[in-house]
Amino acid sequence: MKNKFISALKSVFQALLVFAVAAFIMDWWRKPTEPAQAASQPLTMLDGSRRTLADISRERTAVVYFWGSWCGICRYTSPAVEDLRRDGIPVASIALSSGSDAEIARYMKQRGLGFPAVNDADGQIARQWDVAVTPTVILVKQGKMVHHTTGISSYWGLRSRIWLADLAGV
């Protein structure tokens, strides 16, 4: 009985290790590229306000979230990003090819999403960052990209990455 348990535990550990390595490789492969003037480039939010990444990430690590209303995986990641915003983490989201400002606002309201959003209707911002997939989450500290991940992300996964970025003191 004890040997079966240890064998099963080894199998679970090996599967988790393979998953972690595959996720790391995929993140490396899909790595976005921070544009030269990203920190000072003004972003116009759906509400008409203008923000820069330097401003929102001056005090603490901020989340830049590339997503789309058409993205199935984003339906799982967006609530985690919203929970981060509710917990005081600065968020700037980029809605990629998701329709008009009104359509994006309606989509967000229906799903209880209150994070600030930019309408990247033609994908220009995503191209500037070399964002190849949605969702893509980029952590920015003092205007500079310090971490990124792609695909599904959980609240605690993102929260731990933010904690590590804050701890690193970049």
Summarize the structure.
The chain is of the alpha/beta class and 170 residues long.
For the largest beta-sheet, the strand count, sense and barrel status come to:
5 strands, mixed
Strand order of the largest sheet: 5-4-3-6-7
Give the overall average pLDDT. 87
Number of strands: 7
- Fraction of residues in helix: 40-55%
Helix and strand composition category: alpha/beta
Description:
This protein is of the alpha/beta class and 170 residues long. It has helices spanning 2-29, 53-56, 74-86, 101-110, 124-128, 155-168, and strands spanning 43-44, 50-51, 62-67, 91-96, 117-120, 136-141, 144-150. The strands form two sheets. A five-stranded mixed β-sheet has the order 5-4-3-6-7. Helix 3 packs across helix 6.
Break the fold down into its secondary structure elements and pairings.
Layout: H1 2-29, E1 43-44, E2 50-51, H2 53-56, E3 62-67, H3 74-86, E4 91-96, H4 101-110, E5 117-120, H5 124-128, E6 136-141, E7 144-150, H6 155-168
Pick out its properties.
170 residues, single chain, 5-stranded mixed sheet, alpha/beta
